[in-house]
Design a protein that fits this description.
122 residues; mainly alpha; Arc Repressor Mutant, subunit A; 3-stranded antiparallel beta sheet; elongated
Length: 122
């Protein structure tokens, strides 16, 4: 699996508000599927399907203990997505800075201040 595939799966998993909420709930520590299902107006099976998507994306881990399944945030959860977003932010910041510099140079020293050098008399 390539990094791009993993990243695509992470963003696809994050596209659903229920899955994002599950990740938020897991920040406090491990929960069982039943504990998680109590918070949603869907079946336990539907929550389990959401967890499967999150697990395939590498965002959560599930550990089966008898009849219970503990769910936890995966180590390094979202690190790859956060790094990708930060690279994009840095690229766009650099581009906007260059655009701002270009526009400032085109305006010239007097044009950016609103003073065109010709005093207006009243």
């Amino acid at each position: 699996m390539t990094a791009r595939d993993r990243l695509s799966r992470e963003f696809a998993a994050l596209a659903d508000p229920t899955r994002r909420d599950i990740l938020t709930r897991l920040r406090g520590g491990s929960l069982t599927v039943s504990d998680l299902a109590e918070h949603y107006p869907v079946s336990r099976a539907a929550v389990s399907q959401h967890l499967a998507v999150l697990e395939r994306a590498g965002l959560v881990t599930r550990d089966r203990r008898g009849q219970w399944t503990d769910c936890s945030l995966a180590p390094l959860c979202l690190d790859e997505a956060a790094a990708w977003i930060e690279r994009q932010r840095a690229d766009w910041t650099e581009r906007f800075d260059r655009l701002d510099e270009h526009l400032s140079n085109r305006r010239g020293p007097d044009r950016g201040t609103g003073d065109d050098g010709e005093g207006e008399q009243r």
